[in-house]
Amino acid sequence: MRIDIITIFPDYFAPLELSLIGKARAAGILDVHLHDLRSWTYDRHNTVDDTPYGGGPGMVMKPEPWGEALDAVVAAGAAALGRPDAVPTLVLPAPSGVPFTQARAGDLAAEPWLLFACGRYEGIDSRVAEEAAERMPVMELSIGDYVLAGGESATLVMVETVSRLLPGVLGNTDSVTQDSFAPGEMENLLEGPVYTKPSVWRGREVPPVLLSGNHGAVDRWRRDQALRKTARNRPELLERIPADRLDRHDQEVLEGVRLQAGPESMAD
């Protein structure tokens, strides 16, 4: 997968040299290119922002450097891919975007080329996305209901989430299927507690079922723990699970959590 990132802070992305993503880049699984937006400014101050039309606080990123940057990066990427007509999927991190979920990460992981545009201040002039949408897919995505100083942090989150879904990035592909929010049997359930050696640490023992060698019992225990954690931390996720996906034992586990927490806590 090719990933291009346009930002006024290229150094922000040094973490992409580390850990699994760094290894994926070294192995050629992930091809990341960073671009400084100020390279497409021509005044002495390398200005990328201006006051908003209509008044109001803050500054808005100017369309001219963004337009030129997108033109140049798309052309260079298409040439590198050997496909003059190739275009990326443009991702705009923004608190006003649609939620970035594990499922959406899976969709992006299936794309051959992603281009992230990291806005700052009050955002990028809206005409940039409108114009780009005429020649490439555009997605405005939000990583949560809060406001960051810029799109760089959100881009790091999305790049890491997408990259670990690419074949060859994780040493054990089962890790992906057992994640919280991963599609499949445990979909919409949070991952439960995990343990490793030693079996006793500071007087705390690993749950005996995990040492039993009974795979069926282990699977049941893990599902029970996932149900309990989801009910406590994210009860709204349980509403997304079809009734026929919860067996009688599941229902008993959830009822136990409700009795412990009280109806008011479960409703919050």
Give structural notes.
Helix content is 38%, strand content 15%. With 268 residues, the chain is an alpha/beta fold. α3 packs across α5 (151-163) and α7 (215-233) packs across α9. The protein has helices spanning 19-26, 63-81, 102-109, 126-132, 151-163, 174-177, 215-233, 235-238, 248-261, 263-267, and strands at residues 2-7, 31-36, 49-50, 60-61, 89-99, 113-117, 138-142, 200-201, 204-205. The protein is elongated. It folds into two domains: 2-170, Alpha/beta knot, CATH 3.40.1280; 177-267, Trp Operon Repressor, Chain A. α3 links the parallel β5 and β6 (113-117). The strands form three sheets. It has a five-stranded parallel beta sheet with strand order 2-1-6-5-7. A two-stranded antiparallel sheet has the order 3-4. A two-stranded antiparallel ribbon has the order 8-9. Its EC number is 2.1.1.228. It comes from Nocardiopsis composta. It catalyses: guanosine(37) in tRNA + S-adenosyl-L-methionine = N(1)-methylguanosine(37) in tRNA + S-adenosyl-L-homocysteine + H(+). Belongs to the RNA methyltransferase TrmD family. One of its GO terms (cellular component) is cytosol.
Number of strands: 9
Strand content: 15-25%
Sketch the major β-sheet.
5 strands, parallel
How many distinct domains?
2
Topology pattern, helix = H, strand = E: EHEEEHEHEHEHHEEHHHH
CATH topology call of the largest domain: Alpha/beta knot
The mean pLDDT is 92
The CATH architecture name of the largest domain reads 3-Layer(aba) Sandwich
The helix/strand class is alpha/beta
Shape: elongated
Would you state the CATH class of the largest domain?
Alpha Beta
Query: What would you give as the CATH superfamily of the largest domain?
Result: SPOUT methyltransferase, trefoil knot domain
Radius of gyration: 23 Å
Task: Give the proportion of residues in helices.
Answer: 25-40%
Give the number of helices: 10
Q: How is the largest sheet built, in terms of strand order?
A: 2-1-6-5-7
- End-to-end span in angstroms? 41 Å
Question: Which spans of ≥5 residues are poorly predicted at pLDDT below 50?
Answer: none
